[in-house]
Amino acid sequence: MIHVLIERQIDESMLSTYEENSRAILHRSFNAEGFISGETFSDVNDPLHRFLLCKWQSLRDWQNWATSEERAELMNLIAPILTEPEKIIILEN
């Protein structure tokens, strides 16, 4: 089992659009093979600094989702809203 930490910095004028689109991505990942759970977090000192922590059965399951056409299409909705590319960190216990 692995955890994936995704860090994003949102454009101030696009916050509501980000929230709507990021929820859609998270909900669509629920159906991905190997997805266990996901939570979203906001930095208490910067509401435009967001984190998503997902749990996956395996690294391969995450990689399949991360490189899928479905995620790429959904990320096309998010990418223009970000002030920098998202950062992804893979964690294991």
Describe this structure in words.
The protein is an alpha+beta fold and 93 residues long. The protein has a single domain, classed as Alpha-Beta Plaits (2-Layer Sandwich). The chain has helices at 15-29, 59-66, 69-78; strands at residues 2-9, 35-43, 46-56, 87-91. Strand 2 and strand 3 form a beta hairpin. The model has no long low-confidence stretch (mean pLDDT 93).
Question: What's the SSE blueprint?
Answer:
Elements: E1 2-9, H1 15-29, E2 35-43, E3 46-56, H2 59-66, H3 69-78, E4 87-91
Antiparallel strand pairs: 1-3, 1-4, 2-3
Q: How many individual β-strands? A: 4
CATH fold label: Alpha-Beta Plaits
The profile of the biggest β sheet is:
4 strands, antiparallel
Give the averaged pLDDT, no decimals: 93
H-E string: EHEEHHE
CATH class, anyone? Alpha Beta
Shape annotation: globular
Strand content: 35-45%
Backbone structural class: alpha+beta
CA-atom Rg in angstroms = 13 Å
The number of helical runs is: 3
Which CATH architecture is right?
Answer: 2-Layer Sandwich
Q: What level of helicity do the residues show? A: 25-40%
Keywords for this structure?
35% helix, alpha+beta, 93 residues, 4-stranded antiparallel β-sheet, Alpha-Beta Plaits
